[in-house]
Structures are given as C-alpha cells and as structure tokens.
Design goal:
291 residues; Chalcone isomerase; 7-stranded mixed sheet; globular
C-alpha cells in the first residue's frame, strides 16, 4: 500500500513539472534577453526571406555579322556629371555569407519610401556598447527590400503591423577601418567607406560614386553618433524594429533638416530662409540613409 501511494505521488509530481513553464521564473530573465540582441543570424532575425538572389538567367543571343559602319555626323558631346570626391577602389568588399555569419541588428520600415531596411552587423560591430563608437573592423550591411502591396499600391502588413519584404533591391555596406574615408574630403563621415551592391554582387553604387553616401552620413549624423543613423539606437531596443510615419504625419528625425532655420527678419515680407541643404534632399540622392 505504501509503495502504491509513493508511485502515485511520483506521477503527480512528474505531470506538474512537465506542464509548468520551462525553467520557471528567474530573476535573470531580463538580462538574458538584453544579451541576446545580437544572437540571431542575419537571415533569421526577421522574415526568413533574407537571401541574396541569384542573377536572372542570361539568354544567349546570336550576334549579327559585322558590317562597315555608315558615315554619320558626330553626335554632340553630353555633359558628364561631376562626382563628389570618393575612393577609386573598393576597400569595403561584398560580405560573403553574411546571412549566416552576421547578426541581425534591426528592421526599419520606410512607409514614406515604401522600402524595408534590414540591417545586420558583423561580429566586430556587435561588440559595440550603446553610446560608444563602433570599433575598427565593423561592417554594417543594409538590405533594401521592396514591400508587399495590394493591387491599388497600398502596403500590406503582417498581424504585428510590420511591412512584408518581397524583393531584394540592393545591399548597402559600410566598413570602418583606421584611416578609411579620407578620399571623401569635405564629405568625409569619420573612418567609414560605403559601397552598394546589387543582389548579383555587382556594383549598384561603385566606390567612385559613393561620395553622396558619405555626404548623406556627414550631413545627417555627427561624430557623437559615429556618423550612423538608427544603428546608434535601434539595435538596443527590445523589438529591434521601428517604422517611419507616412508623409504628412508626425515628423521624425529622418525628415529633419541638418540645420536650424535662420532667424527671420523683422519685416513681415521676409520669410525664414534655410541656412543649408535639408537632409531629406541629400538622402534622396544618396538613397540609403537608414543605417
């Protein structure tokens, strides 16, 4: 009788243990969540769609036989756009296997631009402390995704209100190394250099054309933020996610100007004049101010 009673008690204890919360309440639960901010691989931090797309298959074409060029009047010369100072070689480099080797940092939904910014850090960058500059060797990857829309062009969101990624448009990469960035001259943004790649790893913004990227970061950020944008704050938030408001709604830092308005004249006819270019206009040319 005693053995039967002991067996029944053991079964009851086993059932209670298996149905209760795993591990039970713990005073160290919150610190563990904070430490896990950079624990997820880049490809699994958000939707499981983050992969470099293969280039479209090339179709073979038969070249026509060569013919003698016909005489034609010389075409008028077209003006070559003047580029900002920038590096002449790619010292950033496409980060191979970053989806598995890098860590997810944060997502920023750009409702205003209909774009999803998906950011990942390499192991060096994940050692950064909030409020301190990134260490040398840091590499930040920013995937720019086209979001899901309905037939009318309205954004379709998931149950949590997040935009849904569909097509990978570009991969922007920033690398910080000692003495990097000097080629940008007056547009230098610290010791960072920037390059944008297409999903097939070819250049979307070659090093020689990356001066606008540096100008964007130097105008919209500062030395205190190590010339970055949301990478300074969002990775350290509980959700690692934020959303830009739709145009015409609440103003956010992403739409602020890089300087204050000049003090208006006492004459009523004189309107306040801006003393420098707005960040939005620079970001339009740069097209990747989301790191």
């Amino acid at each position: 009788m005693v053995r039967l009673l002991a067996a029944q008690i053991a079964v009851t204890v086993l059932l209670i243990t298996s149905c209760g919360p795993a591990g039970g309440p713990s005073a160290t639960a919150a610190p563990a969540a904070t430490a896990a901010a950079f624990s997820r691989p880049c490809a699994t931090g958000g939707l499981a769609q983050s992969s470099v797309q293969a280039p479209p298959p090339a179709t073979a074409t038969v070249a026509p036989p060569p013919t003698a060029p016909a005489a034609s009047p010389a075409a008028p010369a077209t003006a070559t756009p003047t580029l900002r100072p920038a590096p002449t070689t790619d010292r950033v480099g496409f980060p191979e296997d970053y989806q598995t080797k890098f860590k997810f940092a944060y997502v920023y939904d750009r409702q205003d631009a209909k774009s999803v910014s998906y950011i990942c850090f390499n192991d060096v960058a994940t050692t950064v402390k909030q409020g301190q500059p990134f260490p040398y060797g840091s590499v930040l990857v920013f995937e720019s995704w086209r979001p899901l829309e309905d037939a009318q062009g309205s954004l379709i969101k998931d149950p949590n209100g997040h935009m849904i990624r569909t097509t990978l448009n570009a991969i922007f990469v920033g690398r910080k190394e000692r003495d990097f960035g000097e080629a940008y001259k007056e547009s230098r943004s610290g010791e960072w250099e920037w390059v944008a790649y297409r999903p097939d790893k070819s250049f979307q913004t070659a090093p020689q054309a990356s001066g606008n990227c540096a100008a964007c970061h130097s105008a919209g950020s500062n030395k205190e933020r190590d010339w970055t944008f949301r990478a300074w704050t969002l990775p350290f938030t509980p959700t690692q996610w934020a959303q830009a408001p739709l145009p015409g709604r609440t103003t956010t830092p992403s739409t602020r100007t890089s300087c204050r308005r000049a003090r208006p004249s006492r004459r009523r006819s004189a309107s306040p004049a801006r003393t420098c270019t707005s960040v939005r206009s620079i970001r339009t040319r740069c097209a990747h101010a989301s790191r």
